[in-house]
């Protein structure tokens, strides 16, 4: 009973076994409610599993998933390089307004910019990559600039007392000192990119992708297929998010010391 009561007390630490049982019970309740739902348009879990088999056999689900995953990771890599350059440049007063302007572009919609990027690019693949890179960069820069501004002043003073010049301070305090947080920003922006993927692939259907497959089945009102594709997108996103999180723990194990367990 004590363990059960702890589940409803704020900021209480629970064992891994207790958390696993809690998740299993909640998942079981969710599946029961889903299976017994009176909403007829909602496909059952068995119908989704059956549709999943059909998608794998007849619609090249894994191939389309790989195309989309590669597009997302490629765009994320390019956007990360661009975003870090812009973010680190904001420590120089001359470039600070530019970084501020880039961060405000996150309020623009990609649909309205697709025509401009179509004129700039030369293929459907380039168009999708460009749209994805733009969508990721504006959020990435916003997060990184916020991290840089939140660095305590005493860290800069400490570096200067060690007779470092300002460029060395930038390297040690801002770049090396916050590189573990860069991976966390990458992890957060991957989720944003993964959500944008379907929309971007809908704008340019060249080369296919999981988004095109989803939109085609949605247009034909194949709801069980749509839910099956959504499930695959969700599971793949969770898996890649887990991998990025583990990479942060592997390369920067000290980063876990600041997290409340």
Task: Map the helices and strands.
Blueprint: H1 2-6, H2 16-35, H3 45-58, H4 61-89, H5 96-104, H6 110-120, H7 124-149, H8 153-161, H9 166-176, H10 179-203, H11 210-219, H12 223-251
Helix pairs in contact: 3-12, 4-7, 4-10, 5-7, 6-7, 7-10, 8-9, 10-11, 10-12, 11-12
Protein name: Nitrate ABC transporter permease
Membrane topology: Multi-pass membrane protein
InterPro entries: MetI-like, MetI-like_sf
Q: Can you walk me through this structure?
A:
The protein has 261 residues and is mainly α. It folds into 2 domains: 2-35; 45-258, MetI-like fold. It is built from 12 helices and no strands. Helix 5 (96-104) packs across helix 7 (124-149) and helix 11 (210-219) runs antiparallel to helix 12 (223-251). The radius of gyration is 23 Å and the shape is flat. The model has no long low-confidence stretch (mean pLDDT 88).
């Amino acid at each position: 009973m004590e363990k059960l009561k702890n589940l409803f007390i704020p900021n209480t630490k629970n064992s891994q076994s207790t958390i696993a049982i809690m998740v299993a019970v909640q998942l079981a309740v969710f599946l029961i409610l889903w299976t017994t739902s009176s909403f007829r348009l909602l496909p059952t879990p068995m119908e989704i599993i059956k549709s999943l088999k059909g998608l794998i056999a007849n619609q090249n689900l894994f191939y389309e998933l790989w195309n989309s995953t590669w597009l997302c990771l490629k765009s994320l890599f390019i956007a990360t390089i661009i975003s870090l350059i812009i973010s680190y440049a904001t420590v120089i007063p001359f470039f600070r307004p530019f970084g501020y302007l880039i961060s405000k572009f996150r309020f623009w919609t990609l649909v309205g910019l697709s025509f401009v990027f179509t004129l700039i690019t030369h293929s459907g693949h380039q168009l999708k990559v460009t749209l994805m890179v733009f969508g990721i960069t504006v959020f990435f820069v916003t997060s990184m600039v916020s991290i840089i501004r939140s660095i305590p002043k005493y860290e800069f003073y400490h570096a200067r007392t060690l007779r470092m010049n300002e460029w060395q301070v930038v390297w040690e305090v801002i770049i090396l000192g916050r590189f573990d947080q860069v991976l966390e920003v990458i992890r957060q922006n991957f989720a944003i990119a993964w959500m944008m993927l379907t929309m971007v692939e809908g704008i340019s259907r060249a080369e296919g992708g999981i988004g095109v497959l989803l939109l085609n089945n949605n247009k034909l009102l194949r709801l069980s297929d749509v839910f099956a594709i959504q499930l695959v997108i969700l599971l793949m996103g969770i898996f890649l998010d887990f991998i990025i999180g583990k990479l942060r723990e592997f390369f920067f194990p000290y980063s876990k010391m600041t997290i409340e367990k």
